[in-house]
């Protein structure tokens, strides 16, 4: 039996947790839909074979593992993003 009591209700779809190891089709579709199938960095139209999904604020820097923190990027923005994250992470550890 299902109890209504104590059942957490997701109020904001952006707070939907995403998997640790891989993205579900639903998460991928939701992000692409939100971004109108365009890169979050440069607005280039994304093609399915070369789309990268990154956390805008990485978990190691305190970012939530949720849909709202996820961004779809083209390969070139993904590279820039990763470079920035690596630098941020280095700064983070030096504190
Ligand atoms: Zn881009």
UniProtKB/TrEMBL annotation:
Domain HNH: start-end pairs: 59-81
Gene Ontology terms, MF aspect: endonuclease activity
Entry keyword set: Endonuclease, Hydrolase, Nuclease
CDD domains named among the record's database cross-references: HNHc
Domain of life: Archaea
A Pfam family of this chain: HNH
InterPro entries: HNH (IPR002711), HNH_nuc (IPR003615)
Listed name of the protein: HNH endonuclease
Organism: Methanoculleus methanifontis
